[in-house]
């Protein structure tokens, strides 16, 4: 095979640019459709879409009534994805989400086992109040999220492609819940804080959701097109300065790496998966905002949702009322000065 010439490289760049232009159009239509029924919450909508575009899963944290479930259902329709929902409860068993084998008997009396797929066999899974499930059931789902297949009675069953989990969690009511272990939280590309809507958005919610009709959304893309956009995002070039910024940020968030502030406030920090998540979501954010390469601003904007569930504060920091978001904000500051 011959070497790639400058002309070939330009041709490839032109092809990628053409694909990016088409992806920009699709993403713009996705935003328009979603805005028909999700009012305000621009950051939440953006970050959730970015999690899917980057090929990952997201954990949405917010009090009840903030349209988390509606957002997931809306995105499933807009992206043309098959969807199912699991309402997690303490008595939910792994087989309730993964599926199980049942015994069949034919006319001749021969018996055999048949696998009945559970709700995890879908393209976009809504895992509602995931922290209400037992650790055993949480582990079954989170293993599927990581490996994209399940094993029942020694036989492997692959999950559909694409496969994304958008899980929700109520941060207030902790009685009867099982907090996700840190190793399992790490499998979510982002933890997205869902805040109360602002005044204008809440006024619109009152006016447009209490009448006789509500707006409906249409599919903009399908699963095949989504995977094409995900593949394009992985091909987007990343400037060396952005790679350095990601490495600097992730490593500075770990105690024992020469950052006195992190040493004092952080008990343990993010692993390499955090850097991978920042790299992918920064590319996705660049495309979301109409750019063909990520910048340091993208890294700074995504530092909070990507890092906050991958770090823990020291006892002293918690006693002083310090929050993870405040710590991340301090660690991000040097990137803005760079």
UniProtKB/TrEMBL annotation:
Every AAA+ ATPase domain range: 54-198
Highest taxon of the lineage: Bacteria
Cross-referenced InterPro entries: AAA+_ATPase (IPR003593), ATPase_AAA-3 (IPR011703), CbbQ/NirQ/NorQ/GpvN (IPR050764), ChlI/MoxR_AAA_lid (IPR041628), P-loop_NTPase (IPR027417)
Gene3D superfamilies membership: Magnesium chelatase subunit I, C-Terminal domain (1.10.8.80), P-loop containing nucleotide triphosphate hydrolases (3.40.50.300)
PANTHER family (UniProt xref): MAGNESIUM-CHELATASE SUBUNIT CHLD, MOXR FAMILY PROTEIN
Protein name per its UniProtKB record: MoxR family ATPase
Organism: Rhizobium alvei
